[in-house]
């Protein structure tokens, strides 16, 4: 195994390829992180307050969420990459382990985001679609943008995160699935989609009512997850696994209300997209010919930096930048302008031979770039145009030019301070054999951590093996648990026992909350509706809180009371209710979670009748419950 890992590392690390996929991976990871931070900010009081709005234990949480939001934005745009990914990694660890997020509001994908964040520390995510890549170009402003050689990465950067973050997760999850009866019957994907608490607003009953289709999907998922880690890198199967994985996780996003998990998994499939596909798409969206030719002074440092910056953001390649000194004489439309005149401003020539200069050139550049057209139109507005022209003239007339006889300086490149450059392009080049040995040992350690988790919870726990009888085995089990805690906290390696029989077995009742408005009319709290569905935005980790912790096959009254208190306080205050004057009703209805296929099970669960089983009241920030002692027996 060790020799195989060493050989594979050497092969992948020696092959260079485009950094486009890595840049997209970083960008979409930042967007998924950003949407989750916005979600946390919206549900700040529900998640972090002991009593929402009434007892605020963590008043600094919003500040840290906004700081984290800034960090996520830096990751999206690829600015100060090393600083941003380190901060993001620490934020995930701190929020997951030192707030109620993990205990009460497990998002189901926190471990995945920590794992991806850990790999981003050592990935060259700043080499494409990033501001840092622009900074790299600006460090040598007198080199024309066409002369830059695209920065490359090794194939290892593509395959390693997929193998560990997807391959390990899938294989571990497949082991657990073998112990679930409904998965063995081929209904692993069918059963969650028949449960009101788990479905989105899209009605999928026309798919669920096809037994053969559902069983085909269920068994295909198990085969897919078991074989992914072994075959995804094979060129003959790569596209198949890419398409199946995309379909699987797009389905989770659309049809289940745990969309963050689906989006988190989809990020990694960017790394599986063949680079040729990305290049083809890139060539398709690029303009077939330049819509505007811009002439600039190549002896002006400011002009060179402006050209490099504008070209960096010209993603459709609609603008062609040329040196006024070398190329202006070849365009008859500019024959009436002396070279001294052309060097005073940026001049532009469109396909109709219309000439623009000064601020008008920038306005035309933005418009021709397509996606920045609104900015160009805003600059064209009266008053804004006059103010911008004045500012432009001040900058243009005060710029410094190099003497025509002087050679353009070529400063040293911007220092690359990422961990990737230091380790994979520093140590690996200077000491290749030592690097190879150490890196292989690190990967072997990660593999052993995953095996420890899979064997401990996927086999020993599932087979109900009692490890307490033998002192030696008990000590090994305790050490294994400690390792799982470490691997879960820092690397996101954790058991992936999702939607198994121990969750759905006995799940035959769900709860909802209504209230009596001032007119005496009973209304549904904007949380669970009449069908039993959790309404948006109560999805993701809020859904997990209610459907996986508060309401379970065996309801624990203490936990249920805690979360009823949180939900009534949060949504009651958020919807403008006066808590002390509002009576809440707790409703229950029977549902079914069969391990065998049943026609139209989703609608049967939707149409089941509700019954009121108790009331909840608030008085001076204290909640009182009038609920049955044993809800499970109802």
Automatic annotation (TrEMBL):
Residues annotated as domain HTTM-like: 14-277
**Gene Ontology annotations for the cellular component aspect, listed alphabetically:** endomembrane system
Return the InterPro entries for the record. Answer: DCC1-like (IPR007263), HTTM-like (IPR011020), Sporulation_signal_mat (IPR052964)
* Transmembrane regions: 21-43, 63-95, 107-125, 158-175, 216-233, 239-272
| Family annotation (Pfam families) | DCC1-like (PF04134)
Which Gene Ontology molecular function entries are recorded, alphabetically?
A: protein-disulfide reductase activity
Q: Where in the cell is it found?
A: Endomembrane system
- Where is it mainly found? membrane
**Keywords assigned:** Membrane, Transmembrane, Transmembrane helix
Q: What SMART domains is this protein classified in?
A: HTTM
The way this protein sits in the membrane is described as:
Multi-pass membrane protein
Q: What is this protein called?
A: Thiol-Disulfide oxidoreductase DCC
Q: Which organism is it from?
A: Candidatus Methylobacter favarea
């Amino acid at each position: 195994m060790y020799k195989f890992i060493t050989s594979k590392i050497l092969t992948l690390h020696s092959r260079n390829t485009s950094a486009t996929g890595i840049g997209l991976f970083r960008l979409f990871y930042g967007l998924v992180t950003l949407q989750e931070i916005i979600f946390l900010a919206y549900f700040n009081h529900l998640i972090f307050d002991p009593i929402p709005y009434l007892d605020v234990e963590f008043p600094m949480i919003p500040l840290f969420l906004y700081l984290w939001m800034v960090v996520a934005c830096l990751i999206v745009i690829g600015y100060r990459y090393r600083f941003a990914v380190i901060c993001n990694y620490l934020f995930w660890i701190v929020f997951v382990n030192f707030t109620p997020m993990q205990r009460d509001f497990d998002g189901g994908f926190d471990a995945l985001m920590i794992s991806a964040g850990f790999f981003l520390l050592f990935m060259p995510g700043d080499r494409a679609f990033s501001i840092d890549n622009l900074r790299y170009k600006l460090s040598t402003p007198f080199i024309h943008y066409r002369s830059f050689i695209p920065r490359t990465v090794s194939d290892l950067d593509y395959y390693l995160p997929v193998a560990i973050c997807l391959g390990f997760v899938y294989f571990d999850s497949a082991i657990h699935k073998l112990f679930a009866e409904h998965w063995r019957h081929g209904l692993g994907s069918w059963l969650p989609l028949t449960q009101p608490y788990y479905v989105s607003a899209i009605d999928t009953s026309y798919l669920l009512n096809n037994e053969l289709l559902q069983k085909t999907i269920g068994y295909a998922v198990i085969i897919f997850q078991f074989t992914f880690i072994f075959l995804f890198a094979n060129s003959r199967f790569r596209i198949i696994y890419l398409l199946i994985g995309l379909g699987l996780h797009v389905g989770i996003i659309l049809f289940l209300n745990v969309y963050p998990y689906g989006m988190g998994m989809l990020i990694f499939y960017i790394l599986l997209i063949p680079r040729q596909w990305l290049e083809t798409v890139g060539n398709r969206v690029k303009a077939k010919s330049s819509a505007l030719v811009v002439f600039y002074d190549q002896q002006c440092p400011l002009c060179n930096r402006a050209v490099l910056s504008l070209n960096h953001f010209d993603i459709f390649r609609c603008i062609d930048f040329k040196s006024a000194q070398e190329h202006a004489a070849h365009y008859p439309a500019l024959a009436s302008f002396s070279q001294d005149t052309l060097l005073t401003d940026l001049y532009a020539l469109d396909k109709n031979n219309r000439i623009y200069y000064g601020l008008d050139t920038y306005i035309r550049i933005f418009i021709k770039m397509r996606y920045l057209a609104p900015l160009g139109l805003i600059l064209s507005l009266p008053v804004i145009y006059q103010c911008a022209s004045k500012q432009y003239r001040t900058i243009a007339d005060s710029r410094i030019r190099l003497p025509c006889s002087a050679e353009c300086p070529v400063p040293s490149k911007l220092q690359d301070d990422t961990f990737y450059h230091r380790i994979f392009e520093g140590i690996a080049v200077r000491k290749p054999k030592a690097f190879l040995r150490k890196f292989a040992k690190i990967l072997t350690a990660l593999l052993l951590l995953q095996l420890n988790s899979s064997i401990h919870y996927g086999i020993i726990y599932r087979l109900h093996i009692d490890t307490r009888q033998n002192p030696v085995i008990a000590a090994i089990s305790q050490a294994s648990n400690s390792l799982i805690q470490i691997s879960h906290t820092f690397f996101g390696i954790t058991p992936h026992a999702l939607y198994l029989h121990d969750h759905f077995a006995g799940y035959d009742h769900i709860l909802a909350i209504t209230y009596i408005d001032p007119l005496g009319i009973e209304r549904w709290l904007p949380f669970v509706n009449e069908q039993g569905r959790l309404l948006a935005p109560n999805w993701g980790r809020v859904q997990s809180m209610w459907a996986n912790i508060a309401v379970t096959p065996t309801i624990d009254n203490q936990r249920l009371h805690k979360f009823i208190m949180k939900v009534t306080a949060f949504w009651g205050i958020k919807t403008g209710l006066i808590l002390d004057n509002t009576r809440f009703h707790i409703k229950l209805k029977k549902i079914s979670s069969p391990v065998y296929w049943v026609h139209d099970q989703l609608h049967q669960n939707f149409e089941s009748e509700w019954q009121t089983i108790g009331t909840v009241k608030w008085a001076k920030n204290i909640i009182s419950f009038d609920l049955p002692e044993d809800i499970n027996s109802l």
